[in-house]
Amino acid sequence: MKLQTLVKLSVGLLAVVGALVLMVGVVAVVCAVGAKRPVPAKVILEANFEKGLVEYVPEDPVAKVVSGKAPTMLGVVEALERATTDDRVVGLIARVGEAGYSAAQLQEIRDAIITFRAKGKPAIAYAETFGDGGKGNGSYYLATAFDEICLQPSGELGLAGLMAETPFIRGTLDKLGFVPRMDHRSEYKNAMNELTETNYTAAHREATTKLMESVFGQIVKGIADRRKMSEADVRALIDRGPFLGEEALQAKLVDKLAYRDDAYAEIKKKAGEDAKFLYLSKYGERAGSLYDKGTTVALIYGVGGVMRGKSGYDPVFREVTMGADTVAAAFRAAVDDKKVKAILFRIDSPGGSYVASDTIWRETVRAKKAGKPVIVSMSSVAGSGGYFVAMSADKIVAEPATLTGSIGVFAGKMLSTNFWDKLGVSWDEVHTSSNAMVYTGLQDYTPEQWARFETWLDRVYDDFTTKVAEGRKLPKEKVLEIAKGRVWTGEDAKALGLVDELGGFPVAVRLVREAAGLPVDAKIHLKEFPVKKSALEELITGGPDSSQKAGEATLARALEVMQPLARVARELGLGAADSDTLRMPEPGVEP
Questions:
Q1: pLDDT digit string (tens) for 64-97?
Q2: What percent of the chain has pLDDT over 70?
Q3: What angle do CA 349, 354, 359 make, to 5 degrees?
């Protein structure tokens, strides 16, 4: 045998061996990824509601570093829903504290816990404090879903009612030399007020007060129902707040002054000493999804500010953006997939670009015409452009506290000549046409340009209200009465006909079954569009190596440091205003 032939055989043999080793490695990794440890025969679930959660983590490497390990709303609700009928689950204990949840998010989790409790399974909430020298309305509202509330003796209950605060930076702009030249449709479209006013207008105050009173009424009713008090008594107690630990106990707002170990000993006593503890997220992974088999339903997320182009992730503000190209393509793919019988569109968006919103709206209409029912589930907010993309769905579901509507438009520009003069910067220009300067901040609108601008606002507002009337099957006159840029809670929006039912994912899934003509207990498979890579695809295409992960983590930390400065810049209106024509006013109401 020639040496050359021997070398070729050796190389070929090594290649075969290498391929076999690689195949074994792939199989081992796939098995490791797919293997699930069993759920113990008797288990108490542990949850931490003092940590934040997210609606959606996009296919973005920085997003995965920053938010990839955060629980999702669907993951939390689904795990609790599965645990409700799982005989292995004999109890629930949760740490509760301020985590920045919106009132709507609190309601969705709260409803899931109440359903869990309805099966007679014990559930204990414990808190080191509700507020720690600050507001604790939201965390306490969530805790009342449990059958027992334990508060650390050194803690307090910051239950003192709601307050809305809105910053107005017109004075700052005046000092800097910026002049806002904006207009809106109509008087309740308050987003620009923070730039053009120094305090609330009458309409702004009216709408914000109504929002606050609606959310507060929901919190009072929820506390009264769960603590077996009258609403009048709850309101009177809140007027006395905040409470020290002993005062909260005497007022029967908490059941025990106890430490964490006391609460764990108590749940063990109720559920059984032989029960094992398991984190809620781990339980969800091990028990499997409720929606992984059955009739296929497309799940499409519309999260973040609406913009043209692809969906993305803003690492500075840790915000997802709803790209019209991405969401529209997801709808088209769902329509083309013959297995998909309906579409569940989950929305959490304050709005944004009118054109981008209209692009997504068009795909919801086309999906319905193709025989694919569209059910919208709203999370914290679906306002302005966020409502625009929802308004023609077959059914719309919102939580009672979901910020809804804001059917209106605002736009304009910021004149900056005085600012540059203060800095000693002079500008000059040349132009070709009469209106070439219409978009610049260096020159005000001419009377003719302003008239054209007003016509454009009228056109957008008419288009928005007309499509609401058609999509919601409401008289145009009624839509014009309830529009005007006004933000409503989901509870009020339902009474006005802007929303069909109140609730979260479980209600939306029920409506999906109805729309698809399925039995009430039919199994469904929620298939996310755009389709994400599987674990095997991630392995084959290659994930980030350790050095890349370290770099992403460093970048995430750097962006976190930059965030306060970036927020100030955004508050000053230095961002691109033209992409926010259908952005919802910021109500400033937090539980």
A1: 676 667 789 999 999 999 999 999 999 999 999 9
A2: 84
A3: 85
Dist CA 483 CA 313 (whole Å): 30
What is the Cβ-side half-sphere exposure of residue 378, based on CA atoms within 13 angstroms?
Answer: 39
Cα separation, 216 vs 229, whole angstroms:
16
Q: In a 10 Å sphere around its CB, with 0-12 CB exposed, 13-18 middle and 19+ buried, how is residue 588 labelled?
A: middle
552 pLDDT band, cuts 50/70/90, is low
- Joined tokens for residue 306: 């609406």
Q: How far is residue 326 from each of residues 48, 293, 308, 332, measured CA to CA in Å?
A: 33, 25, 9, 10
Q: What is the DSSP string of 410-449?
A: EEEEEE-HHHHHHHT-------SSTTTTTT-TTSPPPHHH
Query: Residue 580's closest CA among 379, 322, 377?
Result: 322
3-state class of 9 per DSSP? helix
Contact between 441 and 415 under an 8 Å Cβ cutoff? The reply is: yes
Is residue 384 within 8 Å of residue 304, measured between CB atoms? no
**Distances, alpha carbon 507 to alpha carbons 378, 473, 511, 588, in Å:** 11, 22, 6, 28
DSSP 580: G
**Residue 524 and residue 245: Cα distance in Å, rounded?**
46
Q: Are 507 and 277 in contact (CB under 8 A)?
A: no
CA 1 to chain centre: 70
362 touches 591 (CB < 8 A): no
Q: What is the pLDDT of residues 250-260, one digit of tens each?
A: 999 999 999 99
Q: Which two tokens stand for residue 417?
A: 């000549």
Mean pLDDT, range 453-478, rounded to an integer: 97
CB 487 within 8 A of CB 585: yes
Which tokens belong to 408? 């209106």
Residue 566 has a pLDDT of 56
Hey, how many other C-beta atoms are within 10 angstroms of the C-beta on 26? 13
pLDDT > 90: percent of the chain = 77
Place of tokens 């190209």: 325
Per-residue model confidence (pLDDT) at position 227: 97
- CA–CA distance, 264 with 269 (Å, rounded to integer): 9
Instruction: For residue 428, give Cα distances in angstroms to 44, 402, 419, 445, 475.
Output: 71, 48, 15, 17, 51
Is the N-terminal amide bond of 242 cis, ω within 30° of 0? yes
Cα–Cα distance between 156 and 165 in angstroms, integer? 23
CB 357 within 8 A of CB 307: no
Nearest to 355 by CA among 390, 314, 324: 324
Amino acid sitting at position 275? A
